[in-house]
């Protein structure tokens, strides 16, 4: 059999794999494109969407919120298909390259056609491309490590998450300004350019990556019996509870943006755009990741040992607390007030703390708890929890939408509904997490020397 021109297993090494920089550049650029687009999507649908003949054909707030979350749900449903394509046929690298091209075509469609048809086609292509590559990219991070350098895995996942939020932070700051000053073609066009950059970066790193080969249809059959299916079952139960966290988290890109339109946007040194406030989540995450890793977690560990599941449990309660702030703000708005948008920044601090506790922990936990033949598939199941959370939000908005476009849960009652739902979920998670038995699976190493 001819020797592969690529590495097919991690080599013994105590240092960071050479493929990591290409992964981080790709992730930073791809996240810039995705979050830049989603940061302006609700505003585009409610203020810029065009109809036939070049006239405006915008959506109401409830419909835009519903459609936004259905799109997000589709994005995070597609990883199941991506994991199967990757694990059975193409392998992670080729799956990422092929569907990144589909992803790029979705952006091109959004730029060229600003009607509901262009929006629908563009979002479908982006959902397919973005969703299918998601489990492959995150699982491919772990594939670069063997037993000799597995101690660096936690660090690189923190870097990976930092890269995600660096791209998101810059795009959420700039893309709303681009939309406001130059219109949707530029607002969507700049993220499109970054998606092409992301695809090119991944291609350039092809000889540095460890290419774990597709296992074939047998890999799927193996997940349906023995230890793999038991591991998947244990994780799926946990992911059902995590879904409610995502239901709340992604409303910072929809309901919170629409709320900001009714607030006093002058705060600190500038007048903020409603969609621009989102950037603070990504900015804070880059501050809070090292703060939690080097200060908060060690301090808590001195008197209360923090396991992964305990971090997640705490994070669910913190997420419920984050929605108390917009509920209070909506009460002020309904009473005829115009509260400062600075209060939303405070809400983001709480929400971001919950994200560190829940999301980063889940990302690493999902990889280590996944049997070796099902790494991408388990990442897809983790991402499915995001899909379920967004689907829940979309269904709630569909149910509460009146015929005239208004809501059956007006004002603060909308936010209190999700606060209570999150609190109940957090309480129920405690006994489930206590019964979970952890078992880690790490890739085997090769005897090859690491290639240039």
Can you give a write-up of this model?
The structure is a single chain. The chain has helices at 20-47, 61-77, 79-112, 116-143, 153-182, 184-204, 217-222, 226-249, 255-260, 279-301, 308-322, 324-334, 342-368, 375-400, 412-435, and strands at 266-267, 270-271. It is mainly α and 452 residues long. It has one domain (20-267, 274-435): Growth Hormone, Chain: A (Up-down Bundle), CATH 1.20.1250. Helix 5 runs antiparallel to helix 10 and helix 8 (226-249) packs parallel to helix 11. The longest helix has 34 residues, at 79-112.
Q: CATH H level: which superfamily? A: MFS general substrate transporter like domains
Query: Gyration radius, to the nearest Å?
Result: 22 Å
Number of helical regions? 15
- End-to-end distance: 23 Å
The poorly predicted ranges are: none
CATH class: Mainly Alpha
Spatial ordering of strands, largest sheet: 1-2
Give the rounded overall mean pLDDT.
89
Report the structural category: mainly alpha
The share of residues in extended strands comes to under 5%
Cα shape: globular
Largest beta-sheet details: 2 strands, antiparallel
Taken in chain order, the helices and strands follow as: HHHHHHHHHEEHHHHHH
**What fraction, in percent, of the residue positions are helical?**
over 70%
| Strands, total number | 2
Q: Report the CATH topology name.
A: Growth Hormone, Chain: A
> Which architecture per CATH?
Up-down Bundle
